[in-house]
Amino acid sequence: MIVAGGLPATEQLIVGHTRRSDLVGLWQSVLWADGYSTRSGITCTYDEATADATRVWQSNHHLSADGIVGSVTWGAAAQRIAFSGQWIVYQGERFGLPLRLDGDDVYEVWDTGRFRRLRTDAVTLTRCR
Q1: Of 53, 61, 46, which is closest to residue 31 (Cα–Cα)?
Q2: pLDDT tens digit string along 39-72?
Q3: Is 73 helix (H, G, I), strand (E, B) or coil?
Q4: Strand 107-111 relative to strand 114-117, pairing
Q5: Low-confidence ranges of the chain (pLDDT < 50)
Q6: 8 phi/psi in degrees, rounded to 5
Q7: Which parts form a coiled-coil structure per UniProt (predicted)?
Q8: In the chain, helix, strand, coil percent, each to 5?
Q9: CA 113 to CA 51: how far, in whole Å?
Q10: Are strands 81-84 and 107-111 parallel, antiparallel or unpaired?
Q11: φ and ψ at residue 110, rounded to 5 degrees
């Protein structure tokens, strides 16, 4: 499945229940952009380390710190999205995370010098392969 039209607020990321995907890589990139994880923590696997960083992120954003990335957590992250010309940027506390919507209204993420379509059912990001 390709993530289209807005952040994937219906997708939940849960340890032990979430398959490896670009969507997990996107969330890990949000954690990195906000300073809650290192760049090497972007693995596209929703593991305990990611859940722990998520709990801290949730607590610091006044959310229930359950380590599950659901609609409330996605919604809080979406508050940091800004439009910048053709790009959309997640304005992290430390770094910006460039995104864009392609002609089919599908999210693409910046990955090693080019944009790639964001998938929920596969890992296509170079960083995660």
Answers
A1: 53
A2: 999 999 999 999 999 999 999 999 999 999 998 9
A3: helix
A4: antiparallel
A5: 1-2, 4-5
A6: -75, 70
A7: none
A8: 30, 25, 45
A9: 28
A10: unpaired
A11: -75, 125
